[in-house]
């Protein structure tokens, strides 16, 4: 198994393939800050992925320590998890979340490897104004349930923004992207991701960036 270093390699470990009844969807790891210092790790997916399914199944990567760093072992833990989902209060927003800690308790606090998306990857409206109308985006997930079952890894698909990221589409707080989406992709995170260099409204910038 690789030891993920680049942003795209790390994103391979940010999701999990959710089996709920006869359907398959995607979840991703996310961390919210409380009181400025503490963090609560979560798993987030779409409400319709887990709706009416008391138990869902997925695999978690095992972790080991190497040079004082956590790295994936190439092995994974199969989990049947009794759903404890908190739905977003807005019925028009198809998101729900479950805390990671009860799940870790269920697997006896085994060391797992995952990459969490964080609040600092979400740009403010002012920052989004620095982007162009057309930006490359990646979607990480399990279209029609496809995945690398031997290595427990998702598939990455590429697309572009169809509307300017700084402009609310139809006056609502969302945008439109042009990317191939299939059943199983539900719950997949979508990110602007550039490695090495990227174009800006004023020219070329060197470096990498990830925007959720």
Radius of gyration: 17 Å
* CATH-defined fold name: Thrombin, subunit H
What is the number of domains?
1
CATH class: Mainly Beta
Low-confidence stretches: none
Cα distance, first to last residue? Answer: 26 Å
Question: Architecture, CATH level 2?
Answer: Beta Barrel
Give the DSSP E fraction (strand runs of 2 or more residues). Answer: 35-45%
Structural summary, described in words:
- The chain has 212 residues and is mainly β.
- The chain has a single domain, classed as Thrombin, subunit H (Beta Barrel), CATH 2.40.10.
- It contains four helices and 16 strands.
Would you summarize the structure shown here?
The chain has helices spanning 7-11, 47-50, 101-106, 125-128; strands spanning 15-20, 23-34, 38-45, 55-66, 69-82, 86-87, 96-99, 112-113, 117-118, 136-141, 155-161, 177-178, 190-194, 197-200, 203-206, 209-211. With 212 residues, it is mainly beta. Strand 4 (55-66) and strand 5 (69-82) form a beta hairpin.
Characteristic terms for this protein:
single chain, 212 residues, mainly beta, six-stranded mixed sheet, 16 strands, 9% helix
